[in-house]
Design brief:
- It is a single chain.
- The chain has about 425 residues and is an alpha/beta fold.
- Helix content is about 45%, strand content about 15%.
- The chain has a 6-stranded mixed beta sheet, sandwiched between helices. Strands 9-13-12-10-11 form a 5-stranded mixed beta sheet. Strands 7-8 form a two-stranded antiparallel ribbon.
- Helix 3 links the parallel strand 2 and strand 3.
- The longest helix is centred in the N-terminal third of the chain and has 15 residues.
- It starts with a helix and ends with a strand.
């Protein structure tokens, strides 16, 4: 597989330095990508870079994932409007371990293959590097004029930016440049990968290697991902879409990809999966014939669920989707665990009632109107039941005198109330 050709047809190349494709075609090459360790999970904004590393390894090359422990203590000014919070070493080490575990689902770290991935942390070579030695060894090779010309610096120095730039942040490109030099010397890295906002930092590293070591190094960047409607990729009303299930449940992760637009699905299936070109083009042809079936979105969601989560999580997500939007059965509903139920129905109206009301035989009207407040009046609920508009645990209620029992409770504590096709309520018996 030709790495550059692979990224090109996938729409994943923004900039490439002259000579990069040639060096990759000649020999196994080590290349690295920096990852911000300011959280103990990656989010989907990181996935473009991670997929670049994945394709890099599949093309026979050796990926190096760099955790920015030292630079994470400073904050990269590139395309940002403010400085980041600084992290302590204990937090950074914890984040590093969590990130490596997630990366291991995309990259082979464990095999004895010559292109097995490695993970490094720039804190390890920066922590004992004194300030005096750094400015003597590194600082003298890069002029202030060169650093000032970078877009990331210019943007922050605009009069209307309102924030300016600290010396700490101004020095960031020197630190990242030194990372490249260090990995060039110690890991044989000849290529740095990154987002298009990293181009200035990457070229600073290339320049440093040229000036200090008379070496040749290269860079490839991918475009920053945008949505077709102009909205910010990877953001939802509740914030980032994370890979860690503690922050974004597998079901919500699945739904994010399932709900992207047709235009975005065509772009994202190229960027975020390893599906071959012929298969993607066949899926697009099928999708064009019957867009309402959302074949592209379904395949995109499946591929990412299996990469980030598990087959079981994928199965559960599809079952839950059937329950909510299809013809899922009460048996399927009762097979869900507490975590899944609460994550799926987060945001729908919920009410807690005493379990004694259920075991004591309280009727449905009193339970849903008087105790839970899901309906404005018993009269309204009676009309809805009569018209077939109310279901309990996906089963239609036809009798207004219906009395739920303990046996109806999912996991011994939940009743799922449905009004019409799309309105849900969750009753929690305590």
């Amino acid at each position: 597989m030709n790495f550059v050709q692979e990224l090109t047809w996938r729409g994943m190349i923004h900039n490439i330095t002259p000579g990069a494709e040639e060096i990759l075609s000649k020999e196994i090459t080590s290349g690295y990508l920096g990852i911000d360790p300011t959280a103990d999970s990656l989010h989907i904004g990181h996935l473009v870079g991670v997929m670049m590393l994945r394709h890099f390894q599949k093309a026979g090359h050796r990926p190096v994932a760099l955790i920015g422990g030292a630079t994470g203590m400073i904050g990269d000014p590139s395309m940002k409007s403010a400085e980041r919070n600084l992290l302590d070493e204990e937090t950074l080490r914890h984040n590093q371990a969590a990130i490596k575990e997630q990366l291991s689902r995309f990259l082979d770290f464990e095999s004895d293959a010559p292109n097995a991935a490695i993970l490094v942390n720039n804190y390890d070579w920066m922590k004992d590097y004194s300030f005096l030695n750094f400015i003597r060894d590194i600082g003298k090779h890069i002029t202030v004029n060169y650093m000032m010309a970078k877009d990331s610096v210019q943007k922050r120095l605009q009069p209307d930016s309102g924030v300016g730039m600290s010396f700490t942040e101004f020095s960031y490109q020197l630190l990242q440049g030194y990372d490249y030099q260090y990995l060039y010397e110690h890991e044989g890295c000849r290529l740095q990968l990154g987002g298009s906002d990293q181009w200035g930092n990457i070229t600073t590293g290339i320049e440093l290697i040229r000036r200090r070591l008379q070496g040749e190094a290269y860079g490839i960047t991918c475009p920053l991902i945008t949505k077709a409607d102009g909205g910010k990729f990877g953001k939802t009303e509740s914030g980032n879409v994370w890979l860690d299930r503690r922050y974004t449940s597998p079901y919500k992760f699945y739904q994010f990809w399932l709900n992207v637009s047709d235009e975005d699905a065509s772009k994202f299936v190229r960027i975020f999966t390893s599906l071959p070109r012929e298969e993607i083009e066949a899926l697009e042809a099928q999708h064009a014939q019957s867009p309402h079936t959302r074949i592209l979105q379904a395949r995109l969601a499946k591929e990412l669920m299996l990469l980030v989560h598990t087959q079981e999580d994928y199965n559960t997500a599809t079952q839950v989707s059937e329950i909510l939007f299809g013809k899922g059965s009460v048996e399927t509903l009762k097979s869900l665990d507490d975590e899944t139920i609460l994550s799926v129905f987060e945001g729908v109206p919920q009410a807690k009632v005493s379990g004694d009301h259920i075991s004591g035989g309280m009727g449905l009207l009193d339970l849903l109107v008087t105790e839970a407040g899901f309906f404005q009046s018993k009269g309204e609920l009676r009309k809805l039941i009569k018209s077939g508009g109310v279901s309990i645990n996906k089963e239609k209620v036809s009798d207004e005198s219906y009395v739920p029992t303990v046996d109806d409770l999912i996991n011994g504590k939940y009743l799922l109330i449905q009004r019409g096709r799309k309105n849900y309520y969750l009753l929690i018996a305590e």
